[in-house]
Amino acid sequence: MSSSLIKTKRAKLEKKRRRRRNRASETIFECSPSGPCVPCQYSEKAKYDFSEADGTHIDKALRIQCSTLYRHRRERLKAAYFSKSRNLKEVERACPATIDLAQWRWLIYSYWNLPKQRERSEKNRANALSKKIRSACGAKSIARTIYELELEAEAGSNEREEENEATNASSSNATTSTTQANGDPMYLKLWEKTKRHKNGKFDDEAEIKYNEFKKLHEKEVGETGADNVSVDVAYEKVLGYRSGYARGLGKGHPVLSKDEKKGRAELEVTVVQLQNENNTMRAEFEHHKAETLRKENEAKKKQEELEQKLKLIMEKIGLESLT
Question: What is the distance between the alpha carbons of residues 259 and 125, in angstroms, rounded to a whole number?
Answer without folding.
Answer: 34
